[in-house]
Design goal:
This protein is an alpha+beta fold and about 800 residues long. It has 6 domains: about 110 residues, membrane protein fhac (Ubiquitin-like (UB roll)); about 70 residues, Roll (Ubiquitin-like (UB roll)); about 90 residues, membrane protein fhac (Ubiquitin-like (UB roll)), CATH 3.10.20; about 80 residues, Ubiquitin-like (UB roll) (Roll); about 70 residues, Ubiquitin-like (UB roll) (Roll); about 375 residues, Porin, CATH 2.40.160.50. The chain has a 17-stranded antiparallel beta sheet that branches. It has a 3-stranded mixed beta sheet with strand order 1-3-2. A hairpin with a 7-residue loop joins strand 16 and strand 17. Helix 1 runs antiparallel to helix 4. The two termini are about 65 Å apart. One of its GO terms (cellular component) is cell outer membrane. It comes from Fluviispira sanaruensis. InterPro entries: Bac_surfAg_D15, BamA/TamA_POTRA, D15-like, OM_assembly_BamA, POTRA. Keywords: Cell outer membrane, Membrane, Repeat, Signal, Transmembrane, Transmembrane beta strand. Its main location: membrane.
C-alpha cells in the first residue's frame, strides 16, 4: 500500500539524498587535502561518468533527459538538488539518491513506482463503471501517477454531479499483487442526490409562476421525478432555465427583459436546495416599421411578405431569429452565399415600438466547387451522395443544402450529420464537407417467452423468436432480414407452429429512382377453433408458402409508386369435416399497387412529419391462381414534435388505417385467411389475448350426427383502426422512451353497418427501447368495456417501432 505518508517520507528521502551527496563531496575533498579547508575548486567535482541503477521501466535516456548534470559537468549542491527535484517531478519514482563514487563516477539509484496491473471499481451504481473508462486517464500497464489519479477522482465526481449527486465522494486505494504491480481500486460514496425543494420566481408580474414553471426544467421533487429525473438539482438545468425564462419573455414582447444570475442555497440538512430566479421584465414592445435596405434582389414588399415579423404586432425574438435566417436563405437560393445582413433597432420608448432596419450586402454569386464526405466507415459514398440535392459546379442554393442534410439524416444510418460550408470568397466558391457519425444498422436478436398452456393444462408453453435485420448491408443500403418464430401447437402433442420469412430490398437501383424488393415465407399454424369445453376439440392445421416481389419508382420528391406481385400456396386440414368455406385450400395470386408520400424526418423512427400510403390489390388467375377478390387499405400517420429544449424532444403520433376486402366474382368468395381481424402486438393491444380479437364469427357444424356446432373466426371485410401515442425520452442516449397510448378500432362483416357503439377502445403505457441489438417493446394495454377499464395485457415484442413499416 502506498499512501500519503509514504510520499511525505519520499520528500525526506529526497532531502537526505541531497545531503548525502554534499557530505560525500566534502569527504572527498578532506581526503585529498586533510589539513586544508575546502577550496571552491575542490567543491565542484567533475562528473566523469553517470551510472543509473534500479530502473526497470523508465529508460536511462529518459532519466538523463530530465537532468542538467551531464558527463564533464562540475557538481554543486544546487545542481544536484535541482536534478533530484526534476526526476521526482516526472512522477515515475518513489526514491532517488545521488552518490559520487571513485574517479568522479555519479551513481544515481532509483526505485520506480509500481505499474498498474488492473483498474477496479467498487460501489458504482448510479454511474456505471463502463461509462467512466473513457474519462479515466490512468491506464493499465502504466506507472502509478498521483496527479492523474487526482484528476480521475475529479472526473468521477463530475460524472456524479451530472446525475445530480453533488455529495458523492470518490477515493482510491492501491492493492499490491504478487508480481509487484498494483491494482487501483476506485471507490465511491454516492450519498443521495440533492433534490430541489422549492423554486422561487421573483419579479414576474406579467406571467404567473405556474406559466413560467410549465416549461422549466428545474422543478421541485415529486412522485414522477423517478421516471423523468426532474426534481434533481443540476447546475446546467438552472443555467438552461435562466436562458429559457429570458427567451420566453423576449418572445412575448419584453425585448429587454433579463434574468439575474439565479441563487441556489442548500437547506440545513444539506439534502435539499432552494433555487431562486430574479426577473427584470422591462417594457413590452410592438413592431413599429420594418425596412429592407441595401442590395435588393426582389421588391421590398415581396421580401417583407416572406418575413414572420409584421408591423404593429408584438416583437418576438423567435420570429426575428427566423427572419434573419430566412433572409440568408432567400439570397442563398439565388446563389448569394456571402450575403451579409446587418440589423439595426431604432427604439421609440414613448410609443414602446421597435423599428427594425435590415441592411443587406449581397456580394457575388457563388458556386459549389467540391463536395467531400468524411466519417462514413461502412456506408458507401454513393449512398450518401444520392441523398444530396446539389452537385459540384452548380450555383449555391441554401435550401437544397439544408434539404440534403435532412435526407441524409432520414436514412437512419447516422447518429449525427453535419454539412459544413467552407467559403472561398476570393474565388466565389463554396466547398461542402459532409461529416457523419455512423451507428449500428444491423440487429441479431433472440427471445424466449412463456404463457399458460393453450390445451387447458396448468403448465406453461414456451415460444421463441430469432430475428436478423440489416438495413445497410455492406454499406450499400441493402435491406435484408430473416425471422423465425416457434410456438407450441394447441394440441399439446409436442408439435410446434412455426413461421420462417426472408426478405431483401434495394432502395435505389444503380443510384437511380427505381427500387426492388423480394420476400419468401413459409409457415405451419395449428389452431383450435372450438370455443366450448363441453364438446370435442376441433383443430385446423394450415401450411402456407408464399413468394413476392415489388418494383418501385420515385415519381416526385417524397412520392413513390410500388407495383408488387405475390403468389402463395395454402393448405388447410381440419381435424373433423367442416364446411368447405372455412378450410379452403388453394393458390392465391395478387398484384398490388401502392402510392406512398413520406415527409417524415426519419425512415426508422420518425418524430415529425407526415406519412401517407394507399394500397390496392386484387387476386387473379395467371399462374394457377384460384381466387378473385380485391383489397384496399390506407394509412395516415402524423408526427407532431414537442421540444422542451434543443436536445430534448417528445412527440405525438396520430395514425388512422382503414382496410377493405371484397369479392370480384359472385362465384368466388374471399378466402378467409385474407379477411380482417384486429388484436395483436401492434393493433388493439388490449384485445390481444386468446379469443379476444376483434373479428367476426360464424357457427359451424362439427358433427353431422350430434348436430354440435362451434364458433369459427372468419374475419371481417372492413376494419377501422386509429391510435394516439405520446413518446417521452427517458434515457435519450440509450434509445429508451416512455410511451402512453389510446387505441380505437372495429371489424365489420359483409352486411354490418357502421356505428360508433361498435368501436372498441383501449389505453395503456409502456417502454420502447431501440438497442443496437434490436428494437424492444414492453407495454401494458387495458381494454375499455362500457366505460370500465379491464385487465391488463402485457405485450412484449421485438421489431420496428415505426407505423410506416408495421401498419
Amino acid at each position: 500500500m502506498f499512501g500519503l505518508k509514504k510520499y511525505r517520507f519520499l520528500d525526506k528521502t529526497f532531502i537526505f539524498g541531497t545531503s548525502s551527496l554534499v557530505l560525500a563531496l566534502a569527504g572527498q575533498v578532506v581526503a585529498q587535502t586533510p589539513l586544508q579547508q575546502p577550496t571552491a575548486q575542490a567543491l565542484h567535482g567533475v562528473v566523469s561518468k553517470i551510472t543509473i541503477i534500479g530502473n526497470k521501466t523508465v529508460t536511462n535516456e529518459a532519466i538523463l533527459n530530465l537532468m542538467s548534470i551531464k558527463q564533464g559537468t562540475n557538481l554543486t549542491a544546487n545542481s544536484v538538488a535541482k536534478d533530484i527535484k526534476s526526476i521526482f517531478s516526472s512522477s515515475y519514482f518513489q526514491d532517488v539518491k545521488f552518490d559520487l563514487g571513485l574517479n568522479g563516477e555519479l551513481i544515481i539509484s532509483v526505485i520506480e513506482k509500481p505499474t498498474v496491473h488492473d483498474i477496479l471499481y467498487e460501489g458504482f451504481d448510479i454511474v456505471s463503471s463502463s461509462s467512466l473508462k473513457d474519462k479515466i486517464v490512468t491506464k493499465k500497464y502504466t506507472i502509478v501517477d498521483e496527479k492523474k489519479l487526482s484528476q480521475d477522482l475529479r472526473s468521477i465526481e463530475q460524472a456524479y454531479i451530472e446525475k445530480g449527486y453533488y455529495l458523492a465522494k470518490a477515493s482510491y486505494t492501491l492493492e499490491s499483487t504478487q508480481s509487484g504491480s498494483v491494482n487501483i481500486v476506485f471507490k465511491i460514496k454516492e450519498n443521495r442526490p440533492i433534490e430541489v425543494r422549492k423554486v422561487n420566481l421573483l419579479g414576474n408580474d406579467y406571467f404567473s409562476d405556474s406559466e413560467l414553471q410549465s416549461f422549466m426544467v428545474t422543478k421541485p421533487f415529486s412522485w414522477n421525478s423517478i421516471l423523468t429525473s426532474s426534481g434533481l438539482f443540476r447546475d446546467e438545468y438552472v443555467a438552461a432555465d435562466q436562458q429559457n425564462i429570458t427567451y420566453y419573455y423576449r418572445d412575448n414582447g419584453y425585448a429587454e427583459s433579463t434574468v439575474i444570475a439565479p441563487i441556489s442555497r442548500l437547506t440545513r440538512n444539506k439534502k435539499d436546495i432552494n433555487v431562486s430566479f430574479f426577473i427584470e421584465e422591462g417594457e413590452r414592445f410592438n413592431i413599429g416599421s420594418i425596412k429592407i435596405l441595401g442590395d435588393l434582389i426582389e421588391n421590398e414588399e415581396e421580401i417583407k411578405n416572406k418575413l414572420l415579423l409584421k408591423e404593429k404586432e408584438i416583437y418576438r425574438i423567435s420570429k426575428f431569429n427566423y427572419d434573419m435566417k430566412n433572409l440568408k436563405v432567400i439570397y442563398g437560393d439565388q446563389g448569394y452565399a456571402f450575403t451579409y445582413i446587418y440589423p439595426t433597432f431604432n427604439i421609440d420608448r414613448a410609443k414602446k415600438l421597435y423599428n427594425i432596419n435590415y441592411t443587406i450586402t449581397k456580394g457575388e454569386k457563388a458556386y459549389i466547387r467540391k463536395i467531400t464526405i468524411e466519417g462514413n466507415v461502412k456506408t458507401r459514398d454513393n449512398v450518401i451522395r444520392r441523398a444530396i440535392k446539389i452537385n459540384e459546379g452548380q450555383l449555391f442554393n441554401a435550401t437544397k443544402i439544408e434539404k440534403s442534410k435532412s435526407l441524409i439524416e432520414k436514412l437512419g444510418y447516422f447518429e449525427t450529420v453535419q454539412l459544413v460550408q467552407e467559403p472561398d470568397q476570393a474565388h466565389n466558391a463554396v466547398d461542402i464537407k459532409v461529416l457523419v457519425k455512423e451507428k449500428s444498422t444491423g440487429s441479431l436478436s433472440a427471445s424466449l417467452g412463456a404463457s399458460p398452456d393453450t390445451n387447458g393444462s396448468s403448465g406453461l408453453s414456451f415460444f421463441g423468436q430469432l430475428q436478423y435485420q440489416e438495413r445497410n448491408l455492406i454499406g450499400k443500403a441493402y435491406g435484408v432480414g430473416a425471422n423465425v418464430q416457434i410456438s407450441p401447437s394447441p394440441r399439446g402433442n409436442g408439435s410446434v407452429n412455426y413461421t420462417l420469412s426472408l426478405n431483401f430490398g434495394n432502395p435505389s437501383i444503380y443510384d437511380g429512382p427505381w427500387s426492388f424488393g423480394t420476400n419468401l415465407t413459409t409457415s405451419l399454424n395449428e389452431q383450435s377453433v372450438t370455443t366450448s369445453s363441453s364438446i370435442e376439440q376441433v383443430y385446423i392445421t394450415q401450411t402456407t408458402n408464399s413468394f413476392g416481389f415489388s418494383i418501385g419508382r420515385e415519381i416526385l420528391e417524397n412520392l413513390r409508386f410500388n407495383l408488387g406481385y405475390n403468389i402463395s400456396e395454402t393448405n388447410t386440414d381440419p381435424s373433423v369435416p367442416l364446411t368447405q368455406k372455412f378450410y379452403a385450400s388453394g393458390r392465391t395470386e395478387k398484384i398490388s399497387q401502392t402510392l406512398t408520400y413520406d415527409i417524415t424526418d426519419n425512415y426508422v423512427s420518425p418524430t415529425s412529419g407526415l406519412f401517407l400510403s394507399g394500397t390496392n390489390a386484387f387476386g387473379f388467375e395467371l399462374f394457377g391462381g384460384q381466387y378473385k377478390f380485391g383489397t384496399m387499405s390506407g394509412l395516415g400517420a402524423l408526427y407532431i414534435p414537442l421540444d422542451f429544449s434543443e436536445n430534448y424532444r417528445t412527440n405525438f403520433r396520430i395514425a388512422f388505417q382503414p382496410k377493405y376486402v371484397y369479392q370480384t366474382s359472385k362465384s368466388n368468395s374471399v378466402p378467409y385467411w385474407e379477411r380482417l381481424t384486429l388484436g395483436n402486438s401492434y393493433y388493439m393491444k388490449g384485445y390481444s389475448g386468446p379469443g379476444e380479437a376483434l373479428t367476426t364469427t360464424a357457427a359451424v357444424a362439427i358433427s353431422p350426427i350430434t348436430g354440435q356446432t362451434t364458433t369459427f373466426t372468419i374475419g371481417g371485410n372492413r376494419s377501422f383502426y386509429g391510435v394516439i401515442e405520446y413518446f417521452v425520452p427517458i434515457i435519450p442516449q440509450a434509445g429508451l422512451r416512455l410511451v402512453t397510448f389510446g387505441e380505437a378500432g372495429t371489424v365489420l362483416d359483409d352486411y354490418d353497418t357502421f356505428s360508433f357503439d361498435k368501436i372498441k377502445y383501449d389505453i395503456g403505457f409502456g417502454f420502447r427501447w431501440t438497442t443496437p441489438i434490436a428494437p424492444f417493446r414492453f407495454e401494458w394495454a387495458f381494454p375499455i368495456e362500457q366505460g370500465n377499464i379491464g385487465k391488463a395485457h402485457f405485450i412484449f415484442s421485438i421489431g420496428t417501432d415505426s407505423f410506416n413499416n408495421n401498419m
